[in-house]
Amino acid sequence: MNKNGFFQRALLGAALVVPITCAAQDVQQIDLKQAVNTALKNSREVALAQVRYNVAEKTVGTNRAAFQPNLYTGSGAAYSYGFPMTVSGQAPSIVNLSYIQSVFNPLQTAQTRAAVERKEVQRLELERTRNSVVLQTSSAYLELGKVRHSLELMRNQRQSNTRILGFTRQRQSEGLELPIEVTRAELEAARTEQRIVQLESRESTLQQQLALLLGIPAGSRIVPTTESIPTDGTHRERDLIDRALENSLELRQGDYEKRAREHLLAGQIGTKWPTIDLVGEYGLFAKFNNFQDFFQKFQRNNFTVGIQARIPLISSQRSANVALARTELSVSEMELRLKRQNLELDVTRQYQKVRELEAAREVARLELKLAQENLQVIQANFQEGRANLRDVERARLDENDKWVAFLDNDYERQRAELDLLNLTGDLNRLFQ
After folding, report:
1. How far apart, in whole angstroms, are the C-alpha atoms of residue 195 and residue 140?
2. Of 100, 120, 216, 257, which has the maximum CB count within 10 A?
């Protein structure tokens, strides 16, 4: 087979394979709000946080069970010699019923109240996890759109580099250019190829990350349809700090934890008081245990109902427990104050960062506008014979570079906005 026939068959095979590959690849066109909602539904992190909240909720029920009626029954068989009794010291019975219910127990009450507060901590942790998923999804979504746009520009730039390199080589062969100009053109083409490879790698990573977040097949191609998020730059710095202090999930978690430790301290202090339980006992006795040999009268049904009080007299552990609980409360109070200070500082830094990136975006926009106008001028000069092809292509390359720079600045500004919304507690409302 000659070479021409081989290449013709190869091209025909490629033409048949490419459409099949494209058709086999599932295309998912989705906007930002849909992506966020889908990620929240499929997130394993959110599911795990929900289970942890359920555990905290059940823990509250477990602690409250001590103050609710508890009835036990049992029976057994054993050999006894002498006075009838069981291993626990009670009289042996055919059937035994025991009833116990706590009426007054300061430590158990404190533990129940602390469990209620910590249940709220887990509920807020669930919200924080949801916000984290929203932030990850929206950031990856916006970056994927930016990378796709940048790739398109860089592939156009590849064509311009090819034309510049061909033009420069022709002039060099005619003796009108030095070899260094060819090397310079080759270097620019190589830099463009390097940038394309980097963007393609980032695109693949973001594609896989979004597919994992959305719970869709890894081979699906996600097509973003939303390029920007709505922002409001009219808020003052002090207003944003106040909103962050009011809405911060971390501060609210710290406050609930402080309350839980306050309850535990009160419970440890309350151990100086007696505990009171409502108790009851019923036993069905049988004569084969020889009760009549040790008692003047045998009675089959026996029960006891009353209140049992345990009064602490000397407890060496109590003072140590109170000191530990008081220290833990002091730690939580200090942590809460530190979190408040750090939050104010974080909001201030993020607010200034958004302002700086907004200014940088405006500079990038004007540089892009200037490059576009400069390209129009050079194209007009080219038509009039006052500029050559290389001048036009270099102007087009400059426009592409400014486009990529603008896209980078715009994404960084939007990412900073998302971080600021997360700090002020407005991130979740953005996608409702």
Report:
1. 19
2. 257
Q: Kindly provide the b/e burial profile for residues 341-356, where b requires at least 16 CB atoms within 10 angstroms of the residue's own CB.
A: eebeebbeebbebbee
| Mean pLDDT score, 255-261 | 96
What's the CATH number where 384 sits?
1.20.1600.10
Least confident of 149-153, 166-170, 225-229, 236-240: 225-229
Tokens of 9: 């068959």
Q: Which domain holds residue 351?
A: 27-68+105-273+312-430
Q: What are phi and psi of 215, to 5 degrees?
A: 70, 35
Residue corresponding to tokens 């849909």: 34
For the stretch 371-390, pLDDT in tens is 999 999 999 998 988 888 88
List strands edge to edge, sheet with 95-104. 70-74, 95-104, 275-284, 301-310
* 15 pLDDT higher than 50: no
| Total tally of structural domains belonging to the chain | 1
Residue 276 pLDDT more than 80? yes
Q: What are phi and psi of 431, to 5 degrees?
A: -115, 15
Write out the two tokens for 10: 């190869």
Q: What is the dihedral sign for C-alpha 400, 401, 405, 411?
A: positive
pLDDT in tens, 281-313: 888 888 777 777 777 788 889 888 999 898 888
